[in-house]
Amino acid sequence: MKKGDHLFLVDGSGFIFRAFHALPPLTRKSDGLPVGAVSGFCNMLWKLLTDARDTSVGVTPSHFAVIFDYASKTFRKDIYDAYKANRSAPPEELVPQFGLIRQATRAFNLPCIETEGFEADDIIATYARKAEAAGADVTIISSDKDLMQLVTSNVHMYDSMKDKQIGVAEVIEKWGVGPEKMIDLQAMVGDTVDNVPGIPGIGPKTAAQLLEEFGDLDTLLERAGEIKQVKRRENIVAHAEQARLSRRLVELRTDVPLGLDLEALVLEPQDGPKLVAFLKAMEFGTLTRRVAAACACDAEAIEPAVITVESGATARGPDLDPEQAGSSSVAAPAAPRTARSQQTGTELGKDMRPADLAKTRAEAFATAKIDRSCYVTIREIEELDDWIRGALDTGILAVEAEGNSIDPMQGELAGISLALLDNTHAPSGGEIRSAYIPLDHKTGEGDLLGGGRADNQLTIREALDRLKPLLENPSVLKLGHNLKFAYLLLKRYGITLQSYDDVMLMSYVLEAGKGGQGLDSLSERWLGHVPMTWKDVAGSGKSGLSFDKVDIERAMAYAAEKVDLTMRIWLVLKPRLASEKLTTVYERLERPMVATLAEMEERGITIDRQILSRLSGELAQKAAAVEDEIFQLAGEKFTIGSPKQLGDILFGKMGLSGGAKTKTGQWSTSAQVLEELAAVHELPRKIVDWRQLTKLKSTYTDALPGYVHPQTKRVHTSYSLASTTTGRLSSVEPNLQNIPIRTTEGRKIRAAFISTPGHKLVSADYSQIELRVLAHVADIPQLRQAFAEGIDIHSMTASEMFGVPVEGMPADIRRRAKAINFGIIYGISAFGLANQLSIERSEAGEYIKRYFERFPGIRDYMENTKSFVREHGYVETIFGRRAHYPEIRSSNPSVRAFNERAAINAPIQGSAADIIRRAMARMESALAQAGLEEKARMLLQVHDELIFEVEDAEIERTLPVVVTTMEQAAMPAIAMKVPLKVDARAAVNWDEAH
DNA sequence: ACGTACACCTA
DNA sequence: GTAGGTGTACGTC
């Protein structure tokens, strides 16, 4: 280092605390990990590295280092035992960020320096003085007063948050003394935060005045007798020794042994892909784009690094990080410039590429020997504490909450099972230990009195008090299968699960369409092991037991096995996610949904039971009347609801000529067939009417009130995250995604979904989202233009196809075009379109031919999709989600054709599903940012629609937040070639809001 | 008690 | 023509 060089020294530890307190509202990653300080840190580093010259620093660095405290006792503690004794533990939010900031530093390819026994300030002081002696200039990135003693004409400080440089003049301005007197000033004033005693009654103003008068501390202490103020004089005399001690504490050491010499701090060029991978993993979108642009790399093509959360300076988790360790885009530098002897984290399989690791793991577990005899029951608090310590040590824990109901909103906790991972260095992942903690099991199964609480169990309170900090600890990764269940059940006991992976969702991302995602399926698929079934444990039907009634030994075997399997499956799938480049899909589209959907399910929605009960009565009366007419017309009584009996009446007894047959050879009595028969006889129409009335009654007006929760008085659906091939959600118990809307009778049911007093329901739905996605993926000029200009899309299609002007488009022609547009999305066939429009197959074929002539890009899209799915066995959405079609090469032509249509539909339906998932994942923070937390709450999702409950006074403010969040949901990952449009309305019930 | 077929509700 | 879930009837065990 020489004259003209400029060394930047960043006070990393100081920055964390300052950023934490200076940057409220907390920024969090989608999985709940707090990253506000990390975000500020990365932005600052990037700014300094790229345009320090344009800040008030005014120069470009030639050398650069980030300095951290080493979390152990320092020499100051030897001098003064109470040093920093007042420091409380750092806020919980901050703990995981210490490690992340070190990882950020490495990602920026900067030296990361810490030395045992010394604080960051001493290291900074040593480097600053050395550099200064070599003739270089130094800028210390910090605003900590403890560092101001280092300022000279060559050493400046820089407050990055205020963009303010601190030189000699600024120190004098602030403290009334020059930097050379800062040590004495601090020694007199003391520091309550660090527990530096100082002299009582002396503050900065007095100290500066005294130093001005006497020159320095030693002189002052010698001549203290000259001080006129009695109290002040007495204090100084009495505390002279304490002042000298304080000086030794505040004076920075400039002789710290340095692991890296000055030359090693020379600024190296950035490793663009490595940095982008890190920033993507942290979900810092803006900075990722900026860095990618500056480094000329394609951010979309780079997988996010897998980040290990450490707690401070002590390694907490095994670095189960195949991507970071192996993939070329995130490869660690050959020799990390880390001046610390003790490496943080153990890098599992660090020499292996993700694909190799995935293969090794898959092979190691494929023939799993699952030994249930190793499972243990935890009945003592000491034993539980041991397991908790184990989880804290390894940073990984598989967990399952067992309730006495399959509904997490209703059941009570019966027990919790845990699995730990030991010897995490092994390529296979390590050894797994599993345990079950029975908490509320009962005795005397089948006893009418219900039996009492079984002996020798920890209480729910005892166990949860211990487990809560662990389950909420962001540094410990929790693994589960279908974690939404445990999330909801635990939430009801005051525990909000944080930092988790869900193996069901991981498998869904890897294998949607290839089979079930139940734990049993995953176990068979990945481990070759058939686990105990629920029936094995609890029996079924009338004699089936709830879990709390199950014998503890049997419950233990079942519950402990589940977490054992979960841990194994995770070890297999985690590296596969990386090697298949599906980590982003999992992180952005799946994992955030666990908490989001759990919250929505927990909120539920109010239904008006009076409306439904009245409606039920009306429907019963009308159905009875229609039933009478039907029996009159048929000339006999029969079971109208039996298609078989109905077919016999219509096509046998009455001799009507049947239309279609079902696939089992029965006469079809579908609405479409009956509609056509209505022209020749009165009866078929009555059947259609009767079916509509009874359908609405049984499925909705009768069934819905049964779902009202006894305590909350609301209806809580359950969303299934992994049961469709395309990425859509589904809704069960009750299904709130198929509430009637098309008929007036049906809409009355929808109107029974109401807001609570003082609130309205807000419904926001995407307009034509699937056609917009089609216009984007197939890049159709006419569609793009129509959407850009806001022209009615079906009229435009009709105009293109039939040469009719858009203005004054006849309704029937538009209807046909609309059917064709839908047909396209569904993977059109002449057969299907003919059915839909009740026209000849040949005519439908003509329509399709003409459509493809007008929109050749769509035919190309379809052909390309078909050849892609034939080659790969799957198709992808615009965000990279995969839908698999293993039967695409079937020898059965109709099976093949069906799979082709599904494959054509999946990228369209799936991309739309991805978009609304992105909107949902962001919605909570978007509302919170607008100050609408708890005032506007997302309740339901119906594929292209979100329903909220909003305080009356906040509706006007809510609508734009919701609309914007939804319309911008594809950004920044995808810049859509057509705009997304969202319509939103508020009303007291769902019917009027929609 | 459980599984399947059919019909029909939604996007 | 795509993707779901639920209720009823009716078969089998």
From TrEMBL:
What task does this protein carry out? In addition to polymerase activity, this DNA polymerase exhibits 3'-5' and 5'-3' exonuclease activity.
Q: Which residue windows does the record flag with biased composition (Low complexity)?
A: 325-341
Q: Does the keyword DNA repair apply?
A: yes
**Name of the protein described by the UniProt record:** DNA polymerase I
Q: Which residues form the DNA-directed DNA polymerase family A palm domain?
A: 746-954
GO biological process terms on file: DNA-templated DNA replication; double-strand break repair
- The primary gene name is polA
Reaction(s) this enzyme catalyzes, per UniProt: DNA(n) + a 2'-deoxyribonucleoside 5'-triphosphate = DNA(n+1) + diphosphate
Molecular function GO labels: 3'-5' exonuclease activity; 5'-3' exonuclease activity; DNA binding; DNA-directed DNA polymerase activity
Q: Which PROSITE patterns does the protein's record reference? A: DNA_POLYMERASE_A (PS00447)
Where are the residues of the annotated region Disordered?
Answer: 313-349
Q: Which organism is it from?
A: Neorhizobium lilium
Record-listed E.C. numbers:
2.7.7.7
Q: Which InterPro entries match?
A: 3'-5'_exonuclease_dom (IPR002562), 5-3_exonucl_a-hlix_arch_N (IPR020046), 5-3_exonuclease (IPR002421), 5-3_exonuclease_C_sf (IPR036279), DNA-dir_DNA_pol_A_CS (IPR019760), DNA-dir_DNA_pol_A_palm_dom (IPR001098), DNA/RNA_pol_sf (IPR043502), DNA_polI_H3TH (IPR020045)
Cross-referenced Pfam families, in alphabetical order?
A: 5_3_exonuc, 5_3_exonuc_N, DNA_pol_A, DNA_pol_A_exo1
Similarity comment: family membership: Belongs to the DNA polymerase type-A family.
Domain 3'-5' exonuclease, chain residue ranges per copy: 375-578
Tell me which NCBIfam families the record gives.
pola, PRK05755.1
Which intervals hold domain 5'-3' exonuclease?
Answer: 5-268
Subunit structure, as described in the record: Single-chain monomer with multiple functions.
Q: Establish whether keyword Secreted is in the entry.
A: no
Under CDD domains, the record lists: DNA_pol_A_pol_I_C (cd08637), DNA_polA_I_Ecoli_like_exo (cd06139), H3TH_53EXO (cd09898), PIN_53EXO (cd09859)
The entry's keywords: DNA damage, DNA repair, DNA replication, DNA-binding, DNA-directed DNA polymerase, Exonuclease, Hydrolase, Nuclease, Nucleotidyltransferase, Transferase
